[in-house]
Amino acid sequence: MTSIKGPISFDQHGNFLDSSGRVVQLKGINVDGGCKFPQTPYLPSYVPLGKGEEEEEEGDSIFFDGDNVSFVGRPWPLKDVEYHINRLKSMGFNTIRYIITWEALEHAGPGVYDMEFIEYTIEVLKIIHNIGGVFIYLDPHQDVWSRFSGGDGAPMWTLYAAGFDP
Fold first, then answer.
1. What pTM was estimated for this model as a whole?
2. Would 138 be classed as within a structural domain?
3. Which domain does 31 fall in, by range?
4. Residue 6 maps to a domain
5. In this model, does residue 111 exceed pLDDT 90?
6. For residue 97, what are the β-bridge partners?
7. How many domains, the chain?
């Protein structure tokens, strides 16, 4: 696979072009749906929370503690980024749709940014850039509203701000 160097542009027909004017065919993959859920605490969607109305288990209280989460480690631990990118390149992919949710950036409240997550994301993107040959589409992702209302994206505090009591 030929590695594309330099910036890409587009023509009047919507084709992406490399620095020599050749059409670039993007072959992409989504990385990764798991980015919609916190890495910590780890609460996979297939594990039920609580035992019922009478007994609240730890999972229930952890799930609804939307302020104290971390997305650091999504989509991969830093030590694994090179392996996964090279594996994707070996399969012919040259484009990655990289999901970032609002909750990952600002879960603790309006204007309270998770700098550890931001720095982690920058490190992942630097590793991918240094490997080369992969375009990144940053997807500021949101489905429905929030994982607390059956979707993903918006932080818990936005539900309270809208007058809901999750």
1. 0.83
2. yes
3. 26-161
4. no
5. yes
6. 30, 137
7. 1
